[in-house]
Amino acid sequence: xxxxxxxxxxxxxxxxxxxxARAGVIPIVTGTPGYISYGVMFYGDKVxxxxxxxxxxxxxxxxxxxxxxxxxxxxxxxxxxxxGDFSWLELASR
Length: 94
Description:
By secondary structure, the protein is α+β, with helices and mostly antiparallel strands. It has a single domain, classed as Alpha-Beta Plaits, CATH 3.30.70. It contains two helices and four strands, in the order E-H-E-E-H-E. Helix 1 runs antiparallel to helix 2 (56-73). The longest helix has 18 residues, at 14-31.
């Protein structure tokens, strides 16, 4: 299982940015093969995007698509970007 973490900075209104991102990003991630999960955290002027994918190829495909969307639709700037194989990941059993 692969993970993708991107830390952005932003200058937009948090609520407006969150609404815009939900509308634009969710169709991208759910439409990308290998999608497992996606989440976002806001912390001051930072946005942390975290997602899980079935393979490195899927994670990199999503990274490219999401990066293009962010560039075209927001003023966010990518500060740090990580895509890699999880060394350890514990999931809750249901």
